[in-house]
Amino acid sequence: MICFMCACPVVEPDDVEGIARTLEDLFVKWQKGVLKVSDAFGSVAADYSIEKTTGKLHELLEEVSCLKHGR
């Protein structure tokens, strides 16, 4: 979702060459000062903050722990 909102290219996770090309392209754009972020980025970025993601991990671990111990 973030890639879509930021107009970033999407590359398959097993496409090593495609990932490398995309990272290089983004880096070159950043160096030139032309790497732009969509105005919509802020509306989705908060969902991936360290606080939210670690909170979700905590909830998942609690759930798994309860299942394992029969609670």
**Number of domains as seen in the coordinates:** 1
Low-confidence segments, given as residue ranges, are none
Morphology: elongated
Number of helices: 4
Q: What is the CA-CA span between the terminal residues?
A: 35 Å
Summarize the helix and strand pattern as letters.
HHHH
State the helical fraction. Answer: 55-70%
Q: How many strands, which pairing sense, and closed or not: the largest β-sheet? A: none
Break the fold down into its secondary structure elements and pairings.
Blueprint: H1 2-5, H2 16-32, H3 41-45, H4 50-68
Offer a few descriptive terms.
single chain; mainly alpha; elongated; 71 residues
Structure description:
The protein has helices at about 1-5, 15-30, 40-45, 50-70. Helix content is about 65%, strand content about 0%.
Short recap of the structure:
The protein is mostly helical and 71 residues long.
